[in-house]
Design goal:
single chain, 257 residues, alpha+beta, six-stranded antiparallel beta sheet, four-stranded antiparallel beta sheet, 5 helices, 22% helix, binds 2-oxoglutaric acid, binds fe (ii) ion
Length: 257
Amino acid sequence: MKVRGGVSVPQQMPTGYNVYPPGSWDLYENLYYCASRRSSPRQTTSDFNDGNAQCNAFLEDLPQLRFMIERLIEYLGKTTDLIESLISQNLGLGGYFMKELNRDKIEPLKVLCYPKAITEEEIRAWQHQDSSCITLVGQDDTGGYQVLKDAKWVDIKPTKGALVINVGDILQVWSNNRFKSATHRVLNNRERRRCSFAFATNPKKLVSSLPQFTSEMNRPAAYQSFFYEDYMVKRVRNKTHPPAKPEDFADIPIYAL
Ligand SMILES: O=C(O)CCC(=O)C(=O)O
Ligand SMILES: [Fe+2]
């Protein structure tokens, strides 16, 4: 074992594991899990092996992990379906609209661990908007999650059994700015490390502002169309090669018209 930022990790790390080097904007470790929910409403072992083996590492010495992750993804997937249906209704599009639009979605589960802060309260996940359609966040009772509201950081205190629901960039683009992607960050303290998970819904096809919020309302599209994968490549590059000038930062405004 070696200690990185206060967290012990095995030398040989599984696929899907990531930690950012010291000095990065984000200072946490994470593991990714993905499962396709297309073929069957319930998770099966083959869902986890089918094309997603790269990001699904189940540690042999934690036999309960796989069971828990499968149940968690199933539960979060159903919750996402419900929320998408409520948002679709709220937008006046009918309950199944987003489900259809998002038919081929990818739903990664990111499990995060933030080491204790070294000096005082420190920013561990830099302020950002999620690239997703929506994200469901579960946090332990450490605290530190904040959302920017009216130019002030507001604590989102952990509540047992509650999830934080974030609107992401894709919903902002689809709704032509009717829904706004939430700016959030995570602070950590010297007392405790923090654990959380984020379950995102990401589209696989071309993303455009929907005609229901543009041509049908006589309003211009606020964004040009783009493929989610291309957007992700730019965002991931931000993390490994932080841009020197703020205007080079790849965020959803790069697609603004
Ligand atoms: O750890 C958290 O509570 C949030 C993580 C987050 O914002 C993200 O992964 O995008
Ligand atoms: Fe986030």
